[in-house]
Write a structure and sequence with these properties.
With about 475 residues, the protein is α/β, with parallel strands linked by helices. It is built from 13 helices and 16 strands.
Length: about 475
């Protein structure tokens, strides 16, 4: 176990090169460390999870995917696809690992979690300019001085807790911002009754595709929803208000919003007609957790049900009568900053200019969004250490749109990347938009313009980066 007062572990201090302390070895922390090291900046990466796991963590591996195994769409006509293009151009370690260990999931980039994290860990631990220390940092300024670092990046994610969370609350954030997030269960594929399930992607051909589907009749669906609403849920801690990120609501919360809510969200049957050509009343979709298909994630089934209730209720799904669950769902408290009030545009702290934040703590939501903010912050640190001004990304590229959102949102609420974050194109900027074509076509034309504009804008960002 590494201790801060054990300075001899860090080698001699003569001919000292400026180095950066990165706290947190999740997606954002690993991306930041990797970018810095590849740009000749020595890094100390500190994380205590190998000694003590957090409330939502299952393994001691770096860059663990704690919620789903999907990194969302790769389609460049979506915000997620545009963000991935930009990250790849910036040599994203997360995307390298994701594409190398991808599992079938249609247009979504889903991965084998274990292989994905193992590759990132191996890359980080073997990099000559990255030193990993297994310790929990409780005071970033003190740790920066002890470890003779010139900058520190805090990338501990939304599960930041304990002494470090107290330090942030006391010295940086006077207000406590948080929301609750939920995780979907994972089922053992061998325990499912495949006679009641069928393979098909939405709008695809029956028997072909990457998703398993469990169809429900109207009676089965109504009984399922009623049971979800009445089931025992895990209470919030310390009598807090249960505030959720709208893009990742627990299925039991959605069920309480009305009988039809699930049929128009995660259990939507449209495009999932079965072998006889008939559309089920509702469908539960399962996505592979690995290439073998030995484990499946229940798509959209994040939950705050107690473990006992999950076993009882999810076995109501057709084909799940004898289901064994490798991981049950859970609900946990997430924290994030009010970046608009507390940070500069380069994600440095207004109060402590040598302290930077990265990842979900800045107010974004999602795996790739968090990783992208790790890269963004690392770029700013490199620029600052080189004596150059901050590199502000234009708001019409994906990374710039995310940064602009967290730095301007009047009421902080974590957000995924989406076209709503991009500036609306003016009619004079586009061909034909002012002629008011059919509504659906007009929407597609706007998205296409946003896509083209984002790609051109990001090219200029790349050209401005030092070689």
């Amino acid at each position: 176990m590494f201790h801060l007062n054990d300075i001899s572990l860090m080698g001699p201090t003569t001919n000292f090169l400026p180095r950066v302390l990165v706290i947190g070895a999740g997606l954002a922390g690993c991306e930041a460390a990797y970018y810095l090291a590849n740009h000749k900046v020595p890094v100390i990466l500190a994380d205590g999870k190998k000694t003590k796991l957090g409330p939502a963590q299952k393994t001691s591996t770096l860059a663990e995917l704690v919620c789903t195994n999907s990194l969302k769409s790769v389609d460049s006509s979506t915000g997620h696809g545009l963000l991935k293009q930009e990250m790849q151009a910036l040599d994203s370690l997360v995307l390298k690992a994701a594409y190398q260990h991808r599992v079938p999931a249609g247009q979504a980039l889903a991965v084998d979690r274990e292989k994905f994290s193992n590759l990132i860990q191996e890359t980080i631990l073997t990099h000559p300019l990255i030193r990993f220390v297994d310790t929990e940092i409780t005071n970033p300024l003190e740790a920066m001085r002890f470890l003779e670092c010139s900058k520190v990046i805090i990338a501990t994610g939304p599960l930041t807790s304990g002494a470090l969370a107290e330090w942030i609350a006391k010295h940086i954030s006077e207000e406590d911002f948080y929301f609750y997030d939920a995780i979907a269960p994972v089922v053992d594929g061998d325990s499912l009754n495949m006679d009641k399930l069928y393979v098909k992607d939405r709008y695809g051909n029956i028997g072909e595709g990457d998703y398993l589907n469990a169809p429900m009749t109207k009676d089965e669906y109504l009984a399922f929803v009623e049971t979800l609403v009445q089931a025992e849920k895990t209470p919030a801690k310390n009598f807090e208000e249960l505030k959720y990120f709208e893009g990742c609501l627990p299925i039991d919360t959605m069920a309480s919003r009305g009988l039809e809510t699930l049929r128009f969200s995660c259990m939507k049957p449209v495009g999932l007609e079965n072998g006889d050509g008939k559309r089920p009343f509702a469908v539960v979709q399962l996505r592979k957790e690995n290439l073998l298909g030995s484990a499946y994630n229940l798509v959209g089934f994040q939950t705050r049900l107690t473990h006992k209730e999950q076993l009882r209720i999810f076995r109501m799904i057709p084909g799940f009568e004898s289901a064994r669950f490798l991981h049950l769902g859970s609900c946990h408290r997430n924290s994030f900053l009010n970046s608009r009030k507390l940070l500069n545009k380069d994600f440095s702290c207004q109060k402590f200019p040598n302290v930077f934040f990265a990842g979900q703590l800045t107010g974004v939501e999602g795996y790739t969004e968090s990783a992208a903010m790790g890269i963004y912050t690392a770029i700013q640190v490199v620029e600052q250490m080189a004596g150059r001004p901050a590199l502000i990304f234009p708001v019409d590229c994906a990374i710039g749109a995310l940064v602009n959102y967290v730095m301007t949102a009047e009421r902080p609420s974590p957000s995924n990347i989406n076209f709503g974050l991009f500036p609306v194109p003016m009619s004079e900027e586009t061909d034909g938009l002012s002629k008011k074509p059919r509504r659906g076509l007009r929407k597609d034309m706007k998205k296409e313009h946003i896509r083209r504009r984002a790609q051109e804008s990001f090219k200029r960002v790349l050209q401005s980066l030092p070689g």
